[in-house]
Structures are given as C-alpha cells and as structure tokens.
Design a protein that fits this description.
Blueprint: E1 6-13, H1 27-42, E2 51-55, H2 59-63, H3 71-75, E3 84-87, H4 93-106, E4 112-119, H5 126-133, H6 149-165, H7 169-183, H8 199-202, E5 211-213, E6 216-217, E7 227-235, H9 236-241, E8 249-258, H10 263-269, H11 278-291, E9 300-303, H12 308-317, H13 326-331, H14 348-352, H15 359-371, E10 385-392, E11 397-404
Parallel strand pairs: 2-3, 2-4, 9-10
Antiparallel strand pairs: 1-7, 1-8, 4-7, 5-6, 8-11, 10-11
C-alpha cells in the first residue's frame, strides 16, 4: 500500500515577546490569533479542515484552563463540529500533536489537519511558573531539593557529559551566545530586543550571568514565554483536489521514542553507552531512515535548546561530532548561520522563546520556512532539507522530523 505524502500547506507563529496577560488576553485570544493566521497563510477556510490537533502542556496550571481541544471551535465558528483533540507530553506536546495529525492523515481518514500549539506562561510570577513546569518531572521522586526543577535536570545532563568526557562551561556559554545572536535576525523572537552581554567573555561572571541551578546560569536557560504556532497538513489526495494549493514543505521522515520519566534511570541505564541519551539518537536515526537521508543531506536543524546543555546533547546525538565531542562543532563555527550545519537559525528556545506546548509546532514551521526560502533574515542559503528535534521532560518523550522542499517529493 502506497502511503500518502504529508505536506505542510502553511503556518503561523505569534510574537513570542508578547505578554498576553498584561494585554488583558487569554487562551481564547491566543488560539483565535494562531488559528486565523494559520488558515490565512495556508489559503484555506476553517470548513476546509477535516481534523484538529492541539498541543498544550500546562493550561490548567498557568491559566486554570483545560479542555483546549475544544478551543479552536470556540473561537472559529467554521471549526464547530470538526473533530479535535488536545495532547500533553510536556515540552514535546506540539510534536505529539503533529504525530497524531500525521497518523490521521496517513490512515486515510482525513485529508487536511490543523495543528496548533499554544501556551501561556506569564500569568504568574517566575518562581511559581517554574514550580508549575516541574510537574513534567517525576513528582516526589526527583529534584525535591531543587528550587528550579528543569535547570537542575539539565545541569545533571551537563555533569554527565563532564563525568564521561570533560566539559568546559565556556562551550555552553558559546551555544547560548549563538542562539541569542541568531534571534536578533528573527522578528518574532522573544529576545530580539534584549541587550545581551558578551557571554564568551563574561559567561562565568556571577554578576553578569548568575548561577541558577548547578553549573547552569541565567543565559543557559530559555525563558517563560507566551505564544503559539500552527500549521496545516494535507495529503496527496488533498492536493489533487486543490490544484491551486502551494505547499511550503513536505514531511519526509519522523522519529518518536519514549522512555521513563526519571533522569536517574536514564543516566544509570545507559551509563556505559557512548551517547548520554541513546533514545534521542534512535529517534533521529528513525527519522533519517524514513526520509532516506543522512546527516550530509541536511542543511540545518531546529533543536530543543531549553538549556544550552540540551543543545550540546543534540550536536553529538545527531552525528555532527563523535560522542562527547560536541564542543568541536561549537568551536569551529559549524552550527552558526553560514556554517556547515546551522543549528537554531531562528534563535531556538533560548533566543526565540519557549511556549512549551507550541515549541514542537514552531520548529516544524521554521523548518518549512527554510526549505521554502521564506525565513527572511535568518534564511539558510540553499536550504532544501531540514530536521527538527523536540523533546519533553528530561528527554522522556522525543519527537523528530525531516522536512524537505515541496519540489523534492
């Protein structure tokens, strides 16, 4: 049986620098903006959508709002009666929503899907928000003494690299600096207007870049972010029925792996493996195999740099260096715009922003913008094939995609 290609018809991202609560807005306003913008860019109406999937991780905690699968129909009358589901997988919620939409389309049940990721995080003070985010860890079993759960967790990852291979914190600071520099090219990035110090020179200065948890410092961390992103996905059959449709990319491959929640089990189980999180590499390898590509075919990567240590992990797990040698790609400029494999030309999560439920969708959209030459000031010259790497928790849920230019399918 021949599988349908899955095409990206269009998409939308909100401005990740906004504070919706301060503007007097809520989930309905954010969802309306993202749904309307996504449909407009895709050139379709709401009644042209067969199924909806919503990624959201923490609506109940930050805004006392659950049942977000019903929010698109609440704010867009043409979606009334359209089947819709909400998906939660911590920071991989958007990735899981995308996989669910793809499964619907490839099963032949539907020909068009709207996928929306939305999150509001600026509804509460930062320390309260950090506590809410900690619900994605193994409650009562890890991080009980940490003030900030996720910086603590990824400081553990950095420490594991240090234990196995040695780690110079200067390379973490260089990753942060690069993402913040890339973000200045992105008109929707959260930090595009920030006055950022020279982290390579002052990254270990406690006054400039204070410690947060363990060895991770302020600029090693992504921020609390309000925002959303959306895409419309369609099948070959849809395109045959709509010959004027102009997709901006095609999903050539995907990977999905899930392991246990706790970080101790991850590190202990694979203590002798050359890769710190081998299931992350497996997800990437799965996507490459399904897409029939190798690393040499990629022109860029949008990855999950919730912390500088998580991008350090992505570099060797994608195969850009030998295990534990990610610092080489950082030192050599391989991952900057203009390098051999730019990583996070959008600014990623550290520079671009991290509305948790939206990040996986935003990555896929940015990959499609790259291969359709629509990325503006952060465009990778000649980009035809991109990859994304999105994970939730301490990589417990990992989702990755390979996106090709529409002409390649």
């Amino acid at each position: 049986m021949t599988r349908e290609n899955i095409w990206i018809l269009g998409g939308y991202q909100s401005d990740f620098a906004r504070n919706y609560t301060r503007e007097g807005l809520d989930f309905a306003d954010l969802t309306r903006e993202v749904v309307d913008g996504t449909l407009r860019d895709a050139g379709t109406a709401g009644n042209g959508i067969d199924v909806v999937h919503v990624g959201n991780a923490f609506g109940e905690l930050f805004a006392h709002q659950g049942h977000l699968g019903a929010m698109p129909a609440t704010v867009h009358d043409e979606l009334w009666g359209t089947p819709s589901s909400r998906h939660e997988a911590a920071c991989a919620s958007g990735g899981i929503a995308l996989l669910s939409a793809i499964a619907d389309l490839r099963a032949g049940d539907y020909d068009s899907a709207l996928v929306v990721g939305v999150e509001l995080e600026k509804t509460v003070p930062g320390d309260v928000g950090a506590g809410h985010l900690g619900a994605a860890a193994w409650t009562g079993h890890e991080g009980q003494d940490a003030k900030f759960m996720w910086p603590y967790m990824f400081a553990r990852v950095a420490d594991e690299y240090d234990r196995r291979y040695g780690l110079d914190d200067r390379h973490l600071h260089m990753i942060s600096q690069l993402n913040l520099d890339h973000a200045k090219r992105n008109p929707l990035a959260q930090t595009r207007g920030w006055d950022v110090p020279d982290l390579i020179a002052t990254g270990s200065d406690d006054a400039v870049n204070p410690l947060v948890e363990g060895r991770l410092r302020r600029y090693d961390c992504s921020q609390m972010t309000d925002g959303g992103a959306g895409v419309v996905l369609v099948t070959d059959r849809y395109l045959r029925a709509h010959p004027d449709a102009r997709p901006i990319g095609v999903i050539r491959g995907w990977g999905h792996r899930t392991v246990g929640i706790g970080i101790d089990a991850k590190l202990a189980r694979d203590a002798e493996n050359p890769y710190v999180m081998p299931h992350v590499k497996q997800a990437l390898d799965d996507a490459f195999a399904r897409a029939h590509v190798g690393l040499e075919d990629l022109h860029g990567l949008e990855t999950h740099d919730c912390f500088s240590a998580s991008e350090y992990l992505a570099i060797d797990h994608i195969g850009l260096t030998a295990p534990g040698q990610s610092w080489q790609a950082v030192e050599e400029g391989t991952i900057r715009l203009g390098g051999a494999l730019p990583i996070n030309p959008s600014g990623g999560l550290i520079g671009g922003g991290h509305p948790v439920g939206a990040s996986g969708v935003r990555m896929l959209l940015d990959a499609a913008l790259q291969v359709s030459d629509r990325a503006g000031e952060y465009q990778i010259e000649g980009a035809k094939t991109m990859a994304t790497l999105n994970f939730g928790g301490s990589t417990a849920t990992t989702v990755t995609f390979v996106v090709g230019e529409a002409a390649s399918a």
